């Protein structure tokens, strides 16, 4: 169990729940961040994404404090905003002293409009268009994380046109298998991301970058994958990268000032997932980096990481209203809710696990096996298979899906022209919409009559 509680609320936490910020009140209702989820569903309607501001801040501080302790100097964590991007979250990141990583013009604009200082932002993507590059420079992006040769030359050209020098990192593929699901594996040599060490292409792109007058190469980046639990994956990646920095120093006399180790720490979605202690993981990583730098005889670079999921996942919960409970004797039970793959496509895409509850029947026995399914017109629209819910679950009940703070809102779609839910932020016991619900009018507002 995590230590270092942020307030008393969590100290009375029942350890049987998947996240520390959920509990049950006297009425037998599930609570989230101290508030009754049935009340929240009544006030804001469903489906609704809930977010716990305090939990986001606690998660940020686990990183900022561990970085201060184990690396110091300019080393810092960035929030990978692809996990969940909306204006309010960039305000939190600013207040928590977090850098950010962004992957598109949309994320850049959102952060900018939230008043986030983009000189602290790192711009990723394996295919930045000329328009993206110009837009990012217009708004003063700090670093581009360059994925390949074409992008490198496109940035050089645009920077030359503006008579400026652009800071970049080069994304290097270290050849490490993170042992996670294939859709989020990026560390191996055959990845679409980055330039591989193994093929010699990484050396070539570094040599090219060092020769460009409008490019300032500020170091290297790698990201091996997401939802990573396997032992020492990050340490092994760090050893490869530090040795590589030393190799490039010997070969070109270039000593990389920054090493960005990407994101990827796994989070608990179900009881069988392990709990990763971020402070401990960062301590282990720091040890591997310090030891390898010493062996290679190079100074420890400024270390950056860019966690997304582990900052926001357990700060989120989605509430739905049950529309029907279909029982097919001897076969299956279906609990249909008023959202689905349009607000959470992760089961459909990756078979991702989630913990679900009937939020207003928490004191009842969970004696019905069912699939919790959405309202979209396809059979693959499943939130979770083989869930245990109370057999009295019926139309009008509230189903809560836990740990939905990462890659749910950010991956939502308007499939079947279903409006996206609002995001309700809970701060000090007060709930308020920070992203409003889409309306039908919003959905047709781009159509030209
Ligand atoms: N940095 C880079 C370069 C990345 O590509 C990613 C995630 C991160 C940082 C953040 O990784 P995290 O700490 O969140 O694991 N949609 C998938 C996840 C895709 C992750 C893509 N890159 C899912 O829902 O599981």
Question: What's this model, at a glance?
Answer:
With 449 residues, the chain is α/β, with parallel strands linked by helices.
Give a description of the structure.
This protein is an alpha/beta fold and about 450 residues long. The chain has two domains: about 10-55 and about 315-445, Lyase, Ornithine Decarboxylase, Chain A, domain 1 (Beta Barrel), CATH 2.40.37; about 70-305, Alpha-Beta Barrel (TIM Barrel), CATH 3.20.20. The chain is about 30% helix and about 25% strand. The chain has helices at about 10, 35-45, 55-70, 85-95, 105-115, 130-140, 150-160, 200-210, 235-250, 280-295, 310, 345-350, 440-445, and strands spanning about 20-25, 30, 35, 50, 75-80, 100, 120-125, 145, 165-175, 195, 215-220, 260, 300-305, 315-330, 330-335, 355-360, 370-375, 380-390, 400, 425, 430-435. Strands 4, 14, 15, 16, 17, 18, 19, 20 and 21 form a nine-stranded mixed sheet that branches. Strands 5-6-7-8-9-11-12-13 form an eight-stranded parallel barrel, surrounded by six helices. It has a three-stranded antiparallel sheet with strand order 1-2-3. β17 (about 370-375) and β18 form a beta hairpin. α3 runs parallel beside α10 (about 280-295), α6 crosses α7 and α9 packs parallel to α10 (about 280-295). Mean pLDDT is about 95; it is low at about 1-15. The chain binds ligand LLP.
